[in-house]
Fold each of these.
Amino acid sequence: LYKLEDKYPNLIREDSPTKKIGGEVLDKFEKVVHDKPMMSLSDVFNEDEIILFDSRIRKEGISPQYVCELKIDGLSVSLKYEKGIFKSAATRGDGVVGEDITNNVRTINTVPLKINRKIDIEVRGEIFMSKKTLEKLNEERKENNEPLFKNCRNAAAGSIRQLDSSIAKKRNLEVFIYHLPNPEDYGIKTHLDALKFMEDLGFRTNKNNNLLVNSVDDVLKYIEDKGKIREELPYDIDGVVIKLNNLSDQAKMGNTIRYPKWATAYKFPPEISYTKLLDIKFTVGRTGQVTPNAILEPVLVMGSTISKTTLHNEDFVISKDIRIGDIVGIKKAGDVIPEVVTVLKERRKEVLMPFEMIKTCPICGSLLIKKDDESAYYCVNDNCDRKQIESLIHFASRDAMNISGFGDRIIEDFYNFGYIKGILDFYHLEKYKEELKELEGFGEKSIDNLLMEIENSKNNSLERLLFGIGIRYVGKKTAKILARTYKNIDNIINATYDELEGISDIGEKIASSVYEYFHKEENINLINYLKELKVNMNYLGEEIDNELIKDKTFVITGTLSSPRDEIRNIIETNGGKVSGSVSKKTDFVIVGENPGSKYANALKLGIKILKEDELKNMLN
Ligand code: ZN
């Protein structure tokens, strides 16, 4: 259709699908008609196409100067200011109509609420999430049993589409501004000057990566250079944007109905690596979940050698029809976890056996059970060695009882040698001290250290134990909520299902799992033995009932004399809450040096502002 329309422009219909440029407009946000369409760029994929792009420009008698920029993998945004004050923001949508995302964009730290001149202006740029933020977000989501974001772009798009702007705010989005739609209004002659102009107004541009070049060779060099440092950049890029610098040259080239002829986007090749699937091996986790894993001929995927990756579950393998002996395409999902994304079925030279899920546990041989609502199979034998070992590793892990010195390997060895068969055995290890000293790789000192670490773990606050004993669905966060709410283990044991379910952030699934756990005799026995061993069963967070702070919501902005985590802790132990963004529900905003937009928001909403010493007075 694109080609036909180019050939017969008089036949283009008003409602032609080619007039839609990008994504879809969702219904939940107000629609906004852009003053000027937000065009997307034409894509080029190789050197030849870039040279062709350059020659089309030269054919018009232009000696081009190009500005090369990184193509950030996020989503485009239009920002509007009136008299220098941030007014609204919209997504590109279909290029003509976008969505009003003002509330969410307002929360982004790098979007100024006020610029340096009292002018009406629209600027455009890219909203994105840094790799580090994505990593942290996915860690949290994993802990809460929520689906992980595949990459930075999905995470940024998902965050900007939150109806609750406080969630969007927590996602730590960022922005780079790269386009001024009406440069003529400000007497600007080049794209580079437009960038400089916007920078001077207070907008964040990606200036360290923008480069003015005079030849197509330099464009190619830029692409090569940036391709090399792609991995090291703090954000995802999917290519390079090449624009004519001179605005009069841009005007001379003009636009097609879909994209400007004075710019193009070079897209990096997709980072899929192909290799042979040698075998599928099954592993058993702490909960008994059995996972198929791909054993691969070692292959380089975006800089690291991969020889093994998860195949998730039976459904995943069957839906992709992955078979041992296949050539499979591997990609790093979220740029971290390698994943099989494709199977080259046409490369099958011989008959390969379709995948079949195993029926029995590869470790203990007991029959696997598939739970109704899940696609995973479980080994339900409580005595399965692998489940036991994984539970012990979990118990000692850093987020649980934090017994350092216990690598996974040591725990497995101690289990196999019979020193540690269950959680209680950690606390009886002392009696094997002399034997342990004789083990290869251990000396008197390391055994002493290990025993001391074990002894110290008895003093942990309750939430570590709650997490460590591995109650289903009780992650780190839930363990903390339970500990903080009930103060000691007996209160949790005695809690009714309704009480548990009534706690905010604890749903039916968690409540019934906790309730069931503490109504099994073997678990109560375990707790009682641990008590006898003097393992602490109390929540150790300080508790001071401070009426000024209790049930109040605080927001912190700017630099304070103590770390934010510390201040958050103090507020929380006094019964207050700390939120990431200012809303009508905020009671106090604590303001330090160089406060951000939250301070401005607080003033606007008339929320009480506290200096750090005023908070301290409240605490006293
Ligand atoms: Zn088993």
Amino acid sequence: MSQYMNPRFSLFDAYTPGEQPQDRQYLKLNTNESPYPPAPGVQRAVTAEAVQRLRLYNDPECSKLTQKLAETTGLKAENILCGNGSDELLAFAFQAWGHQGAAFPDVSYGLYPVLADLYDVKAVKVPLREDYSIDDRDYLGLPQGLIVIANPNAPTGLSLLPRQLAHIAEENPGSVVLVDEAYVDFGGQSCLPLIGRYDNLAVVQTFSKSRSLAGARLGFAAAPAALIKDLRKLKNAFNPYNVNSLTQMLGLAALKEKEYYQLQSRAIQQARESTRDALGHLGFRVLPSQANFLFAAHPQIGGEALYLALKKRGILVRYFSAPRTRAWVRITVGTREQMEELLTDIRQIIGGIRP
Ligand code: PMP
């Protein structure tokens, strides 16, 4: 760091994104991307005309995309705000609603504590149960502030039901309950139908996972109009043109390809279940994930050792060094063939450590 850096950030730990090494071709199972390309209609949206239009500023309100999202979610445009990935919307949420503190699970998306630090939000980390599930009762009657729950949670893949999240919103009328549904399209149940029933319930979703658009950076928030106004104010204070025009077009095209994405999601869920079985047969403990990743631990090899052994063989998975997660690896579910490749290597690694 330079001598010019604000001292407030000298001890600040930023988020470490999943590695994207360029030294060789890896089978990338570390950042929960889709193994499938964006839908054909999305690919066709990248026309010469669309590129030429980059000369102009993009629509800061993402009007067409917002309208289409409103239609597909059954909400009004005033209930939707688009963001540069859902990460950006999470940042706005911490700024808008975290001034009295924020609560989230102790094992969850690593960006939450980083955003809390960045925006000087007092964080309350609510421990998961011993089995890594969220106990919804721990969230009833928390001190006022922001409550953030990834549903399904990451890196566990475990879910709550919408009615449990609704109950949390009911029992915390002084807080905003933000449900991060990055992985909901792989088998979870969305809280979108509950939007508007509670003043304090908001949802964020992303196009990065089930819609194969991680590199386009697109997410959206759905919430009562007053909460969307809060987020929009922060958006317009920070980066009014936050979603570029190509991404707006790609997002719009993606929303017209529901069947394509449902098919891919089903294939990923099938690959997830067969991989979970296979890992179970190899002695792994694997949580029953409803996301596009599996969280797995083996009694004979720690998370870091397995991560390193797989990396040496050209496969990237994610390892988290915190005490509660260091025995585990998080494996993104790819195609069936990719999962076979992973399992072949894991069999060899496990075989090598057996006496
Ligand atoms: N929420 C969770 C739980 C995630 O795992 C991720 C992906 N890292 C995100 C949000 C952010 O996704 P994006 O910014 O790509 O929309």
